[in-house]
Amino acid sequence: MKKSELYKTLLINTFFIGIALLSLELFARILTQARVDASRPLQSIRSIPSALLNRGGDWYIHLNQSNIQRKPYPYLMFKGAPNAADHNYLGYRISDPITRNTINIALFGGSTGYQGSPAIINLLTQKLNALKTDNQYAPLNFSVVSSNHNQHLHSIIENYNEYPIDIIVFYGGYNETFQTALYDPRPGFPYNFQVRNEMSPEEMFLRKHFVLYTIIEKNFKKFPLKPFTSNWNTQIVENYIKTIDGARLISKSLTTGRCKTPFLFIYQPYQIPEKVPELFKNQVHSNIKSYAISSKDGIDVSDSLNEFPSEYVDGVHLSQSGRKIVAQKIFESNIFMEAVKSCKN
Hints:
The protein is an alpha/beta fold. The chain has 14 helices and 7 strands. It has helices at 3-38, 48-52, 59-63, 111-114, 120-130, 149-159, 178-183, 193-198, 201-209, 211-220, 230-254, 278-294, 320-331, 334-341, and strands spanning 71-73, 77-79, 103-109, 137-141, 167-172, 263-267, 298-300. It has a 5-stranded parallel β-sheet, sandwiched between helices. Strands 1-2 form a two-stranded antiparallel ribbon. Helix 5 (120-130) crosses helix 13 and helix 11 (230-254) runs parallel beside helix 12. The chain is elongated. Residues 41-46 have low confidence and may be disordered.
């Protein structure tokens, strides 16, 4: 074969392979966006042209490090950007100043603790202040979108000397269990740790610009633990309990000492998709629920929206009226009220 014919053949094959890859990439973008829209019933369906521009799939939603809700930060991995949106100088939704004139309740959670107008912790302190007791209560919302309780342990240490914290509340359960299966299956790891911190520059480039690569990488990347297996379920629960134990111990040392009960943890409501193996419900959800119920400082509100499924915006995020229902359930808890009553200003 002559060189000119060889080059012509290679050029034609390259052209058709390129067309095939481009077609697959565009199809992957449309398919990915369709799945996103299907999971968000309260949002309008995006047009196909918009989907075609959605390079990198979830990059700009989940991995863009200029996102003001997930700004890179030492030790914590990420937190809110300081002085952006309604964040204070530390990057949290906290209304300064906070002094020792109030009993200060700090809530550490993910997006479900972060979101709301007002957020759940603010709803709770409003209810407490409406009782008109000798104490006034102030909310400290240290929640960070997508964060988990392992990160919250570090957040306590990073922030305890910024404010006089009287009670620490861990609010979560979803990011510590189900989110782990979606974004990095290793128990306790921050969400998307393998992408943000372990990918090479070349992999990051492909992950950012090509949905097709994202799909291939997700299906072929292997981890020692496979989500929803018995071993994974067991380690998820063990990590949750170990983290709560650590938070309980740290809270005794780093709060003001004005409250006899300086720590509470709350197991939040979320929906478990039907396609998830029943083993997850039995080994993870039920065990954490039982652990919260049996603990002197645990509050289980995971069933609080069973009769109000329409209050879910998606599998875990709530409408504002849904947050009010959850806040009311927490407020009605004897464990919560006893902890609050144990505080002396």
